[in-house]
Amino acid sequence: MARHSSQHPRGYHLIWPTYGTWLPGDERGWVQRGDPERRPPQRGLAAWSAAQLRWPPLRFDREQRAVVAAAFDDACARRGWTLRARAVQTAHVHVVVEADADASDVRGALKRAATRALRRRWPSLEGRELWAGSGWTCTLGAFVDVDRSIDYAEHDHHRPRR
Fold first, then answer.
1. What is the pLDDT of residues 141-159, one digit of tens each?
2. What is the dihedral of CA 81, 156, 59, 120, to 10 degrees?
């Protein structure tokens, strides 16, 4: 288990989309950088955002999802982080991890590891963006938070809200 220090929380639930799959103006709502408020859909902004993309949106197939999952496993093991849960979907990932590092450092390391693994297996992905520039971070401070995040990542995140 990763050591816990007063400088870093015990864990994170990190979520980030693949390139081009959740744009400003999206019909599911969207978040503007620096403002945590979820904004309503804006068709014009969504269309403009899609027109700005340099590459087509990236959606993983089953084999690519497996490569990303294995890269996350390896990256966490090498750093001594405890990977509590991961859900690699076609257009986004969920990771619940305990790490003595900042959330942005953890996300960056996992993105880099997965990118290297994907490009090694599919050289056609070289030179293009694979991930959105940012994502969502939930800092976990209690075991119940960790357990809820694990359950959400592994089972609930695509269920309709009650």
1. 766 677 788 888 887 666 5
2. 20
CB contact at 8 A, 78 and 4: no
What phi and psi values does residue 95 have, to the nearest 5 degrees? -135, 130
Rounded Cα distance between 102 and 107, Å, is 9
Angle formed at CA 156 by CA 8 and CA 137, multiple of 5 degrees: 25
Q: How far is CA 46 from CA 15, 28, 50, in A?
A: 21, 11, 6
Residue 85: name the closest of 77, 73, 103 by CA.
73
Structure tokens at 132: 């959105």
- Cα–Cα distance, 158 to 90 (Å, whole number): 12
Token output for 135: 């994502």
In whole angstroms, give the CA distance from residue 137 to residue 111.
14
> Can you give the pLDDT at residue 1?
39
| 3 state SS of 71 | helix
The set of residues, in sequence order, having a beta carbon less than 8 Å from that of 71 and lying 6+ positions away, is 110, 113, 114, 116, 117, 118
